[in-house]
Amino acid sequence: MRLVRLGFDGALLLLVGVALEGASAQGQCPTPQQVVIVGGAAGSDLPGAALGALGTPRTISSGTQDIGCTSLSVSGAAPLVSCFASNGSLFGSCMTSDPAMMAIVSRLTPQSILNFSWDADGACTQITVKTAACNP
Question: How many other CB atoms sit within 10 Å of the CB of residue 86?
Fold first, then answer.
């Protein structure tokens, strides 16, 4: 057996795949019900990643769970995207001006599942948007 070390992105994608496959096998819409944050939270100088569904309102005992991205354009400056996630105990975020990542963020809808990761400096290293229709 060969062991492969997964980075934060790989570990989160594996976690997502297992969670979504289980829901599909049970005939449910594959939507994560929680915002998952792994690795370093914002301000910790550690890389991390987050995953969650945009259209699933969540309130938990320690507060609310939020995930999303904001596009920002200011006169005289390059446009930016900031993605953020909070699960009641952790907060993670990243920023990017990469045109490819900004294009991915423009595809977000209320039915999207958002997965993003960041490096130790808080720069986005990966943004994935999954949007699919399903029948519950």
Answer: 21
